[in-house]
Amino acid sequence: MAQDTSMEEFEALLNESLEMDTPNEGSVVKGRVIAVEAGQAIIDVGYKMEGRVDLKEFANPGESPDINVGDEVEVYLRQVENARGEAVISREMARREEAWDRLEKAYADEERVEGAIFGRVKGGFTVDLGGAVAFLPGSQVDVRPVRDAGPLMGLKQPFQILKMDRRRGNIVVSRRAILEESRAEQRAEVIANLTEGQAVDGVVKNITEYGAFVDLGGVDGLLHVTDMAWRRVNHPSEILSIGETVKVQVIKINKETHRISLGMKQLQADPWDTVEQKFALGSVHTGRVTNITDYGAFVELEPGVEGLVHVSEMSWTKKNVHPGKIVSTSQEVDVMVLEIDSAKRRVSLGLKQTMRNPWEVFAETHPAGTEVEGEVKNITEFGLFIGLPGDIDGMVHLSDLSWDQRGEQAIQEYRKGDIVKAKVSEVDIEKERISLSIKELGEDPFAEAIGGVKRGSIVTVEVTKIEDGGIEVEYEGMKSFIRRSDLSRDRSEQRPERFQPGDKVDVRVTQVDSKTRKLGLSIKAREIAEEKEAVEQYGSSDSGASLGDILGAALRGNDDQ
C-alpha cells in the first residue's frame, strides 16, 4: 500500500516537471544556432528539440542576414514536432510578438519608435518596425507633399504611432509628426532670437498669389504682396523668384502660432511722406493707369503713390459708361490733383479737369440765336436730342418743334439719325444743358397773323361754327371761341342761335396769348367800350340826358360822318 502511494507521488512529480520544462506551442523560446546550411539556420531550442528557420527571417528589409553558429536567438514555437520529428519554429513571428509588446508599450507612453520604409502600397508605404509591419499614409510622410520617396527607402528613422490594433494586426505610423515636432522646436529657437522691427536675410522658398514664404533659417515667414513694395504689385513673381536671397523686416511675431509677418517696403523710404509737397492741389501730372474698377481707375503718379480717378471725374460727356471704355491699363494720362488725404493715403484725381468744359466752349462759340446742325441722337417723350460739336447734346423740347402743330404730332416727323437744323435758345453751363429750337428757324405765323393787333383792338371775325356754349370764329386763319356770356351786353341777346356761319362780326380783343397762340375775343366787351365812348362824347353825368338819347345822338353822329 505504501509502495503504491510512492509510485503515484513520483508520477505526479514527473508530470509536473514535464509541464514546467516543456514549452507550450505558440510561445517564444530561446535557442542556439548549431548549424547554417542550405539557406537555413538549424536551431536547438532545448528539450531535445531542433528546428529550421530560413535565413531571410534574420534579415532586416534591404539588408543581408546576420546570423552565425553559436548565436542565441528567440524563436516562436509553432509546433513541438512535425512529421520529420522536428520543431516548427519561426524567427519572424518571434520578432513580431516581441515587436508588438514593445510597440504597445511605446504607443501607451507616446514614445517614438524606429523603423525603415521598405515598400510602396496604395495610399502610402510599408514600414518595418523591428519585426512588425506598419502602414505609413502618403500624407504622413513629410510636412509637404513628397514627389520622390526613393531617398527615404530603407533608411532607419523615427516614427510616431498614430493607431494600432493587435487583434487585426494593424499599425499606422507618421513621419510627419516627428518632423513637425522637430520643426516646432527649431522654430521656437529661431523665433526666440527674432524681434519685431529687426532686418534679416532670408531665402524665397515658395511664391503664391498673395505673397511669398521666406526661409529665415529654419522658420518660414510670410511676405504679403502688399508689403513687398510701396507701389502696386499684381503678382509676387514680378519682383521675386524662388531661391532668391532678400532682406526683409520682421513686422509681427505671433508667439502662440509661431507665425511671422515680413515686409520689404518697410526698409525703403515711404513716398507718401512727400506727396503733399510733390503734388500740389490743382497741379497736373502724367501718370500710368494701373487698375480699372467699376467705380473708376487708379493712376500711379510715382512708384508707391496711386490716386483714384472716380468715374464721375473721367469725362465731361460720357456719364454712364464703364471706366474701361475711357482708359485702358498701362495707358499714360494727364490728371489733375483734386484732393489729398495723407492720413488715409488717398489722392483724388480728375481726368476731365485737364480738358476744357465742352459746354463752356460751346457757349463761347455758339451764343443764343446761332444756327447749328446735328444728328438726331435720341427721341424721347419730351423732345429730340441733337448731337453737337464737342461730343455734347442739345435738346429740342416738344414745344419748340413747330409753330403750327402740337409737339406730340410734330415729333412724329423725326427719326433717329436724321440731320436737322436748329437755333440755340439757351446754354446752361452749370447744369450742362443746351436748349435748341427748330421752330425759331422760321417766322411765327401767329405773330404775322395778328400783326398790330393788341389787347383792346376791334377786329372783324367770321363765324364758322355755332355751339350751345358760344360760337367759333376765325381771324386771319386762326380759330377762336366766343363764349355765350360774351355774345352781347344784353343778357337776352346772349343766344348763339342768332348767328349763322359766315356772319361777319366786330369783336374786341380781350387777350393775346402767345404761348397758347390764341386770341381772347368778346362782342360784349366791344359793346361796353362803345357805350363808354358814346357817354364820354355825347353826354355827361349832370346833363339829364337818357342813355337812349345819348346813343341816338351817337348814331346820328356816325350817320353824318
Automatic annotation (TrEMBL):
Q: Might you report a single GO cellular component term?
A: cytosolic small ribosomal subunit
Keywords for the protein's UniProt record, in alphabetical order: Repeat, Ribonucleoprotein, Ribosomal protein, RNA-binding
Family recorded in the similarity comment: Belongs to the bacterial ribosomal protein bS1 family.
**In which domain of life is the source organism classified?**
Bacteria
Identify this protein by name: 30S ribosomal protein S1
What the entry lists under SUPFAM superfamilies is as follows: Nucleic acid-binding proteins
Q: What does this protein do?
A: Binds mRNA; thus facilitating recognition of the initiation point. It is needed to translate mRNA with a short Shine-Dalgarno (SD) purine-rich sequence.
Write out the GO MF terms.
mRNA binding; structural constituent of ribosome
Q: Kindly list the biological process annotations in GO that this record carries.
A: translation
NCBIfam families for this protein: PRK06299.1-2 (NF004952), PRK06299.1-5 (NF004955), rpsA (TIGR00717)
**S1 motif domain mapped to chain residues:** 26-92, 110-176, 197-265, 282-352, 369-439, 456-524
Q: Is Ligase one of the keywords?
A: no
Could you tell me which residues belong to the region Disordered? Answer: 486-507, 534-561
Query: Which PANTHER family does the UniProt entry name for this protein?
Result: 30S RIBOSOMAL PROTEIN S1, SMALL RIBOSOMAL SUBUNIT PROTEIN BS1C
